């Protein structure tokens, strides 16, 4: 279907537009979340869409939400999109890119789990031998697998601002110790379960971020997206080589291109060549296919 840079639904009130998702109010207790084809890099929304990206993000998130339901409840509501969007033209505009979710209170932290040393974690390690205050063994290389996955939270920045890595004690101040420890424990459990599943299908989940919210009873639920090419670094197992920056199935491909440009990483974002757009769309689709298809699996 055609790329969708921004949804426009007249049948529901628009609450907000994020970097990728548009949020609409459904009654008092629910939201319609629409994953557009917008792409953000370095916290800047780029001017061109990646065709089909929003549908991939939604289908992959739904796949993982179902797979992790035994570990934690999530925000999905048992309400089909067609029950809240009845106009045929608006429904066609959405395709597979929308979901109806419960309206919850989001936590002010992003729960990041790292299984490999890359990105800002690698920069922190080079400078201090630690990531978010967690000391790591000496002599690790770029993209090395860590002895065990680590939880490295960050604050949630406003649109256009940069998230800030923080240590665990900072999240205790924000959330209270019991809730902070619950977020850390379930984040590590989700990563361990899903990273093993993905590896068996040819994908290394190098790192990922989770978001959580609270219901009216104060119960913790998974929200937003889950283990998508937007929220995670996905590497092909057959091309993984420690000491180098591995190829990826995610938007790191776009980040690598942007790093070659004379751009200060502030809005507006630069135009992408069509070849980069097409290759990125292919990578997102391949990640979905590898993760969700039935196939013979590899052992880690």
Q: Count the DSSP helices.
A: 8
Beta-strand percent range: 15-25%
Largest sheet: 7 strands, antiparallel
Task: Sum up the overall morphology in one term.
Answer: globular
Structural Rg: 19 Å
Structural class: alpha+beta
Fraction in helix: 25-40%
Low-confidence stretches: 296-300
- pLDDT average, as an integer? 93
Per DSSP E runs of 2 or more residues, the count of β-strands stands at 15
The sequence of SSEs as H and E is EEEEEHHHEEEHEEEEHHEEEHH
How far apart the termini lie comes to 37 Å
Quickly describe the structure.
The protein is of the alpha+beta class and 300 residues long. The protein is built from eight helices and 15 strands.
How does this structure look, described?
Helix 1 runs parallel beside helix 8. By secondary structure, the protein is an alpha+beta fold. The chain starts with 13 loop residues before the first strand and ends in an 8-residue tail after the last helix. Strand 13 and strand 14 form a beta hairpin. It has helices spanning 53-67, 81-84, 88-94, 119-128, 168-175, 177-199, 252-259, 274-292, and strands at 14-17, 21-26, 30-35, 40-41, 44-45, 98-102, 105-106, 109-116, 130-131, 134-135, 145-151, 154-155, 203-214, 220-223, 232-236. Mean pLDDT is 93; it is low at 296-300. It has eight helices and 15 strands. The strands form four sheets. Strands 7, 8, 11, 12, 13, 14 and 15 form a seven-stranded antiparallel β-sheet that branches.
